[in-house]
UniProtKB/TrEMBL annotation:
Residues 5-63 form the Transcriptional regulator HTH-type FeoC domain. This is Transcriptional regulator. InterPro entries: Tscrpt_reg_HTH_FeoC (IPR015102). It holds the Pfam family FeoC. It comes from Clostridium frigoris.
Length: 89
């Protein structure tokens, strides 16, 4: 199941853990745990860029000032080389 989640993350685009859980037929909490496990195993890493990504086009470079909104809860994951190798098998 970890590989399925890794492949889904590699597709890019916006998603939520809830949507991914629905797509994969599992509980949202399990998806969150597996994403944490993928990070701990070095298959994914959290992007340190915290840009406005809500589509508001406000031009802000920081998520906490995006159109006056705070804590929009966006996480951006990058697939590491290790992760890329795992999904290419």
């Amino acid at each position: 199941m970890l590989i399925k989640i890794l492949k889904r993350l590699a597709q890019g685009g916006l998603y939520s853990n809830k949507l991914m859980a629905r797509e994969l037929g599992m509980d949202e909490g399990v998806v969150e745990q597996m994403i944490t496990q993928l990070q701990n195993l070095g298959y994914i890493e959290k992007d340190d860029e915290e840009k406005c990504s809500s589509g508001c086009d406000c031009g802000s470079s920081k998520k906490d000032s995006c159109c006056g909104k705070t804590d929009i809860g966006v996480k951006i994951w990058n697939i590491t080389e290790k992760g890329k190798k795992a999904i290419s098998v």
